[in-house]
Amino acid sequence: MAKQATKQHVEPTVQEALSKSEQFLSTYKNQIFYALGGIVLFFGIAFAYKKLYTEPKKEEAMGQMFLAEQAFRDDAFALALNGDGNILGFAQVLSEYGRHAGKAIHLYKGICHLQLGEFEEAIKALSKYKSKDFITQARAYCCIGDAYVGVHNLKKALEYYMKAARHHDNLMAAVYLKKAAIIHEETGAPQQAIKLYEEIKEKYPQTLEAYEADKYIARLQIAQ
């Protein structure tokens, strides 16, 4: 009897819920229809924008960058950066295509400025480079450090060399640690420099920097 009573009690509740849902759908069916239509339209426009505008723009930008990248590989940094009337440089590609040119253009552009001695511009460009590729991101940090050396801001240079070295554990970290150690030497902190040379020897014994570390350590110890 108890089970039958419970069943009788539940069934009206379910029916009431269904009835309310039907009433809601009936009352707001137009609003729901327009909302769903708006969502479909939004995604349709987004898809069309991507296929008809964004992707072609990216392909066009990559095509324009090809000759600039070739000049970059040939160490023709002024040509790579500014073009020559026949090809577009990275600066022109970035100005014309903006974000469609991709993230790497900031790294290319920054290194060109650095090689040309345009240190402030190098810092600005390289600071815009953000990548999940730990090797190129660490390289960007190191280049920012080099640019800060160029403007005689050794404190910031040290900060970025260490940022590059700690970004990911790989053999290039030895190069960045050596640069940081040299900054410590230049700023009168020989013990900090020695610590970094010792770290290079311990963590990256197969590198050229580790091979030369004892020479630098001995020189610093003699000078104290």
Structure in words:
The chain is mainly alpha-helical. The N terminus is likely disordered.
Write the layout of secondary structure elements.
Layout: H1 2-73, H2 77-82, H3 90-97, H4 104-115, H5 119-127, H6 134-150, H7 154-167, H8 172-186, H9 190-203, H10 208-223
Secondary structure: helix percent: over 70%
Distance between the termini: 98 Å
**Overall pLDDT, averaged?**
82
**Sheet bearing the most strands, described?**
none
Strand tally, please? 0
Low-confidence spans: pLDDT under 50, at least 5 residues?
A: 1-10, 43-55
Helices, by number, come to 10
Report the C-alpha radius of gyration, rounded: 30 Å
Strand content: under 5%
The class by helix and strand makeup works out as mainly alpha
Element pattern in H and E = HHHHHHHHHH
- How does the overall form come out from the CA principal axes? extended
What is this structure, in a nutshell?
With 224 residues, this protein is an all-alpha fold. The chain has helices at 2-73, 77-82, 90-97, 104-115, 119-127, 134-150, 154-167, 172-186, 190-203, 208-223.
Provide keyphrases for this structure:
single chain; 224 residues; mainly alpha
